[in-house]
Amino acid sequence: MKKWHLGLGFVGALALAGAAMAQTAPAEFVVSGKTAEDIQDFTTINLATAERIAEACERLSAAEGVQVSIYILDNDGNHVYMHRMDGQGYLNIVTAEMKARTALMGREPSKNRMNRVLQNPDAELQQIQLGFFPNSGGIPIVVNKQLIGAIGVGGSAPRVAQGWSDEICAHKALIEVLGAQNVAPLAQDLPPQRNAPPANPAPVPTFAVPGGVVPKSSLPTDFVVSGRAAGMIYTGNQISGAAAKKVARACRAWAAEHNGTMSLYIINTAGEFVHMERMDGQNYNNIRTALLKAQTALRGRQPTSIRAAQLRNEPGGQPRQLVQFGFFAVAGGIPIVVDGEMIGAIGVGGGAGGGDEACAIQGLKAAFGDRVAVPVYPAAAAR
Question: What is the pTM of this model?
Answer without folding.
Answer: 0.90
